[in-house]
Amino acid sequence: MPYLIKDRDHMRKVREGMRDTFVGAASDKGYQILGFWENGFRHITNNVRPINVPADLEGIKLRTPKGEWRVKMFQSYGANPTPMSFSEVFTALKTGVIDGQENPLAQIYSGKFQEVQKYLSMTGHVYSPAFLATSSRNWDGWSDEVKTAVQDCATKASDFAYETSAQMDNDLVSKIEAAGTVMNEADKQAFIDASKPIYEEFGTQVEGGQKLIDDIQALATGA
Question: CB count, 10 Å around CB of 71?
């Protein structure tokens, strides 16, 4: 969901306060979550114009992942979302098949998108979590000693992941700008306001969706 996670401190509260919710949901599908990592906050790059408000996305061919809600989100903003594998994005940007894409800074820089994109707009529209996991069958086969050791390492690695990602965000903006890409800070409140229909649709279509949203948002304020 867009702007569901306010910042990394909020994500820490979600990790600590709702761990059982996510671990339980994964367990139902045969996975054991060991650690909460991240890919960070996602931003938009493109070759048409700086993106300050949702209206600036009107008509822009924007690569997105193939998730249903990401596509709906950018459709509601007025963009033309184009689901595509990450490995195809650089060539598609270079040849003009698409105008832009949205990813965390680490993926933008490692994918060398700054070489084929004019604008970087700091929208921070979605926080991308990542999960260190194993199969439930594998987990159940470990001794208690092994489980404790692996879980301890995974938890410590989660803290490292958050700290490292935050530092990378600070470092990578200047590196992307140094490549000639023009950076701007987007009007996040305008995007938050434009995201309300997505929240309403998700809350009514996904079983338990509204409660999950409410529980996560409550942790942002400490309620």
Answer: 17
CB-side neighbour CA atoms (13 Å) of 146:
6
CA dihedral 107, 67, 139, 147 (to 10 degrees): 40
pTM above 0.85, yes or no: yes
Task: Report yes or no: 102 and 44 within 8 Å, Cβ to Cβ.
Answer: yes
Rounded Cα distance, 21 and 212, in Å: 9
The answer to whether residue 189 is domain-embedded is yes
pLDDT tens digits along 157-198:
988 888 899 899 889 999 999 999 999 999 999 999 999 999
The type of residue at 13 is: K
Residue 6, classed as helix, strand or coil, is: coil
Residue 2 belongs to a domain: no
What SS3 class is residue 52?
Answer: coil
User: In this structure, is residue 23 part of a structural domain?
Assistant: yes
**Domain tally for the chain?**
1
N-terminal to C-terminal alpha carbon distance within the chain = 20
Kindly state whether residue 142 falls inside one of the protein's structural domains.
Answer: yes
Beta carbons of 34 and 133 less than 8 angstroms apart: yes
Q: Pull the structure tokens for residue 36.
A: 């909460």
Q: Which domain holds residue 131?
A: 8-221
Is-contact 78 58, C-beta < 8 A?
yes
